Amino acid sequence: MRITMIVDGVSYTDEVEPRTLLVQHLREKLGKVGTVVGCDTGNCGACTVHVDGHSVKSCSMLAVQADGCEITTIEGLARDGQLHPVQQAFHDNHALQCGFCTPGMIMQAIDLLADDPDPDERTVRHGLEGNLCRCTGYQNIVRAVQDAAHRLKPAAEREREAVGGGE
Amino acid sequence: MTTTEIGKPRRRKEDARLITGRTRWTDNITLPGLVHMAILRSPVAHARITAIDTTAARAKSGVLAVLTGADLAAEQGSLPCAWAITPDMKTPAHPSIAVDTVNYAGEAVAIVVARTSAEAHDALEAIDVDYEDLPVVLDMELAIADDAPLVHESLGTNKNALWVFDSAEAGTGGNVDEAIAAGEVVIERKYRQQRLIPAFMEPRSVVCDPTGEQCTLWSATQVPHILRLMLALTLGVPEHKIRVIAPDVGGGFGGKLQVTPEEMLVFLVARRLGKPVKHTETRSESLATGHHGRDQIQRLTLSATRDGVITGLKVDLLADMGAYLSLVTPGIPILGAFMYNAIYKIPAYRFSCTNVFTNKVMTDAYRGAGRPEATFAIERLMDELAAELGMDPMAVREKNWITHEEFPFTTVCGLTYDSGNYEAATAKAKQLFDYDGLRREQLERRERGDAVQLGIGISTFTEMCGLAPSRVLGSLSYGAGGWEHAAIRMLPSGKVEVVTGSSPHGQGHETAWSQIVADQLGVPFEDVEVLHGDTQSSHKGMDTYGSRSLTVGAIAVVKATDKVVAKARRVAAHMLECSEDDLDFAGGRFTVRGTDRGTGIGDVALAVFAAHDLPDGMEPSLDSEATFDPENFSFPHGTHLCATEVDTETGRVAIRSYVCVDDVGTVVNPLIVEGQVHGGLAQGIAQALFEEAVHDENGTLTTGTFADYLLPSAADLPSFVTDRTETPSTTNPLGVKGVGEAGTIASTPAVVNAIVDAVRHLGVNDIEMPCTPFRVWSAIQ
User: Fold this and answer.
1) Is the Cβ pair B713, A128 closer than 8 Å?
2) Where is the domain boundary, A76, A108, A142?
């Protein structure tokens, strides 16, 4: 089948076998190897990308289902050499060790923060439930997501919080 | 040495590529003409292969080759086991691909090489294998009975080896049978260390590129140097014709401390076809066929006086090897043998371990390897002894532990603990935990008969790290040494390349080694580049496992920098026309003592590069190498305290608080240390509460996906309170001890002790791991 999708701002038109998973298409055809495969049952979340702005495990979607969609992967987050605030927060809070789960974890964290810009620890932990990490014990990932939430808030709001003793 | 970098919470250099998706995972590698290998695996645990029909598979689209064990029998050799623990150890031949018999479900029986991975997998389905079932051996206790069916008929037994340490025989302590006979209190317990799966996040992947005589092999491995040697020895290929590269590697935890069938097969097939070949396992393949960990039955006898002084400890183990011996399979229980006495002054000790073959995938190193099992046993026993005597479990520990004035202390196993301060770590942990307050609350809840009871678990652990002094390894019949290698290259511009034989897969060597070298040479952190994981650039190494990178690998780096400074000093003295003895070296500058005349190490490097005016007879290079062999292990320790809330009506366990104070000696980077502890805790807690590799009665792994093998998610774990005391090791110049395994070793008994403590008043003194709600609830009934 012939499909077209925009991935990290670039339009691609390809012939794909209907059985091809989105993650296989991204990795094998488009060279988007920043997105990785960690399992074969949709449990680990390492392959998480955004499809039309929402997080999707790209091993659980066929490439043909993404026809006409706009996809963002970990490779499309940084703009003009500037890391996305969630990427920066992962670095600053030592939220990764081997880094294999990190692309999926960051994509899921961004989605989580879009739904809830100011999540408490419990919300973050439950929001990342579908993304497994074997290295970090999650503590610094939770820290990073909350730190990113703070950075993503408009400056005025951060200032109000500081004055109000919220920080 | 001016210390400005050591102890600094440097953000990691590694992160830049990992957070942007520009990582070099093995599976990301594509080469011109690359073809893909897929493996047909045995669905049965024990059977004779009576026929394999590959005709239909060969005719499928894109298929270059279909090969069976018979096709490769002459060249595949036997996968290596580097640790013959006894002279009479039984070692079965271990083919990479089964020739006539399969011994565990998942063993390779045929391979397909095709243009795409999808075509290779399609063709697997067209292969027809006939199996003739053989009796399946799964239970260790049944396996060692006289009339038990055998895993390997040719060995005549399911026992791999019997390994014994006895303190009376070794002259390191008393006679344990006498101690137990005379014991005022004797505690006997049987504990089961369930089978676990390392479950690194990056599935293993191998690519081999045969170019002429030279073969380059990329592998997601912890041990590129060991792999190179073993490829050579196993396949009879000259070692210098093999280059192994471990690019970015996504976790290991011991699971990638292996020389795998897949590596051998990809290498063989690539050479046979003359084309680059890749194999990347699926998660299901990884869980079923990557080696597992733990799987021991521990029978323990502890004797003590009525006032709580331990007089003897006897350990009888059964350890499941699985169907074959992998790289260090038989030695894993032995790594625990020296740790059952832990931090306690135990006067008499005997350890005996029977290694047993079963029709399951092999066991081998998994985070802690032997030491978690030992620590679990002794820390559980300390609680049992306390309960028997009606003492507080912390008081029993205090009564028996080595006090800080007693270091160095030679244990009943003959190891000399160089340093430690158990009192300090415990005092800090108790305060952070509010030990006394929680004990009061526990009492109140018990008196009220609350449905949800509070339990407090203690684990005052130690471990032996920094594997290992080569002489000790030799005395244990291990097949290699325990040294590590490093080299420093001073570039003409003053920048520095550090070559390390240690092979990171998440630990952060690039950052930590940069900090150490920046301090040693007085150069900026940013000016240091760390090279690793490629046998061509880092030609010599023993790789990464056993919390050895910092304690052995980084010490080699320090020794190499010392040599660079010594050479540079000679040149600097020549440049400044003074004696070497008149030079001070600090902050990267040589200065003539008592003057402001001096030169930077970068200027010296440039002068050496130009080589126009060097001291007579000096070669124009500051580059230096060092190979460091430790004289002793290091002994990190810590006090871990866990409070659990156990719902006595449902058996549900919730961790209310977890406090640990670890003493890992000098800390190079506190962020990395804290991260290692967090991750270690998660894995140890997972053993206590969640994870178990389960086989059905046919030997099929029923926990073969992440839907069934329960890695904890963020929602399953609490936040931990971590802190440190710092008692430097006295056996290495940095004072470091290693931190990779601490959290895992300490936390499992802390959690189980807390669960048992919550329901002990209901008549419970043990709950088998993982402590699922059903098991906890059943124990209470």
Assistant:
1) yes
2) A76
Range of A59's domain?
A: 2-76
Identify all chain B residues contacting A112, using CB atoms and an 8 Å cutoff: none
Buried b (16+ CB within 10 A) or exposed e, B644-662: bbbbbeebebebebbbbbb
Q: Find the CB nearest A102 among B19, B507, B705.
A: B19
- DSSP notation for B256-320: TSS--HHHHHHHHHHHHHTS-EEEE--HHHHHHHS-BEEEEEEEEEEEE-TTS-EEEEEEEEEEE
> pTM to 2 decimals?
0.97
- A166 in a structural domain: no
Q: Does A160 touch chain B (CB under 8 A)?
A: no
Residues in B closer than 8 angstroms to A124, CB to CB, are 714
Nearest residue of chain B to residue A142 (CA atoms): B714
Residue type, B752: V
- Going from the N-terminus, what domains does chain B have, and what CATH number goes with each? 34-134+202-250+256-289 (3.90.1170.50), 293-467+632-780 (3.30.365.10), 483-628 (3.30.365.10)
Count of structural domains, chain A: 2
User: Looking at B436-588, which runs of residues are DSSP E strands?
Assistant: 452-462, 484-490, 496-500, 528-531, 583-586
Verify whether the Cβ–Cβ distance B15 to A90 is below 8 Å: yes
Which pair of structure tokens corresponds to residue B459?
């684990």
Residues A52 and A111 in one domain: no
Q: With a CB-CB cutoff of 8 Å, which residues 95-134 of chain A face chain B?
A: 96-103, 106, 121, 124-126, 128-134
Chain A residue at shortest CA distance from B29: A33
Q: Name the residue facing B20 among A32, A44, A74 (closest C-beta).
A: A74
Is residue A167 in a domain? no
Q: Which of A48, A139, A140, A143 to mutate to test the interface with B (most CBs of B within 10 A)?
A: A139
For chain B (length 781 residues), average pLDDT per consecutive 10?
84 98 97 98 98 98 98 97 97 98 98 97 98 98 97 98 98 98 98 98 98 93 98 97 98 98 98 97 98 98 98 98 98 97 98 98 97 98 98 98 98 97 98 98 98 98 95 95 98 98 96 98 98 96 95 98 98 98 97 97 98 97 98 98 98 98 98 98 98 98 98 98 97 96 97 98 98 98 94
Please answer yes or no on whether B283 and A98 come within 8 Å at the CB atom.
no
B19–A136 C-beta distance less than 8 A: no
Could A134 and B284 be called an inter-chain contact, meaning their C-beta atoms sit closer than 8 Å?
A: no
Chain B residues in contact with A32 (beta carbon < 8 A): 21
Nearest to B76 by CA among B56, B52, B93: B93
Give the C-alpha separation, B334 to B336, whole Å: 5
Question: What CATH number is associated with residue A71?
Answer: 3.10.20.30
CA distance A149 to chain B (A): 17
pLDDT per residue as tens digits for the range B123-149: 999 999 999 999 999 999 999 999 999
- Domain C-terminal end among A59, A76, A93: A76
The residues, any chain, with a CB within 8 Å of residue A145's CB and separated by 6 or more, are A86, A89, A109, A112, A113, A119, A124, A127, A128
Checking phi first, is residue B473 left (phi over 0); if not, alpha (psi -120 to 50) or beta?
A: alpha
A89 and A110 co-located in one domain = yes
Dihedral pair phi/psi, residue B669, rounded to 5°: -140, 105
Claim to verify: residue A71 and residue A91 sit in the same structural domain:
no
Q: Does A60 touch chain B (CB under 8 A)?
A: no
* In a shared domain, residues A156 and A100: yes
Scanning every residue of chain B, which has its alpha carbon at the shortest distance from the alpha carbon of A87? B19
Residue of B nearest to A31 (CA): B28
* Any domain includes A32: yes
Chain A positions touching B29 (Cβ under 8 A) are none
Helix (H, G, I), strand (E, B) or coil at A7: strand
Whether residue A16 is contained in a domain is answered as: yes
